[in-house]
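sry for the spam today, last one i promise. struct tokens for design, 152 residues
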């Protein structure tokens, strides 16, 4: 059975492994290097597990094994609007298609709602139809494309 829950200290090794896989996968996709930048597994995990109520790291389990992770944050926008952002969602290749990603998305949306967020955003890299379709299946709609031009 699939389950999403807040990450605990004993999940650190699994989260490190999963986030490393996610970063490698992202870097290999169009736009991934710009998204990942100089982020490291350690700095991201530390950022997402800071005490407070503005970020949460969640794990997804299947049959008691941690096979996915999701990081969600909140930020204040204009006019006192609070937005949620799914900064990272990754499920191991062999564990996809059994509901772990859906459980993680549902948990992230609930977490944002509990904090009074007006909306929840999630990122998908250009051409990543699988992620886009997964997000749309979870109720997300594309509302903005960001294009970039390097100046070096």
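last one done:
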């Amino acid at each position: 059975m699939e389950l999403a829950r807040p990450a605990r200290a004993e999940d650190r090794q699994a989260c490190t492994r999963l986030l490393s896989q996610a970063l490698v996968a992202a870097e290999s996709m169009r736009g991934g290097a710009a998204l990942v930048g100089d982020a490291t597994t350690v700095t991201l995990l530390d950022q997402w597990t800071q005490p407070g109520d503005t970020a949460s790291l969640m794990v997804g389990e299947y049959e008691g094994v941690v096979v996915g992770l999701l990081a969600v944050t909140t930020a204040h926008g204009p006019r006192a609007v609070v937005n949620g952002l799914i900064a990272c969602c990754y499920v191991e290749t062999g564990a996809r298609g059994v509901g772990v990603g859906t459980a993680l998305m549902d948990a992230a949306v609930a977490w944002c709602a509990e904090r009074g967020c007006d909306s929840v955003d999630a990122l998908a890299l250009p051409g990543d139809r699988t992620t886009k379709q997964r997000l749309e299946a979870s109720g997300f709609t594309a509302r903005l494309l960001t294009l970039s031009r390097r100046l070096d």
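Residues 12-27 form the longest helix (16 residues). ok im logging off now
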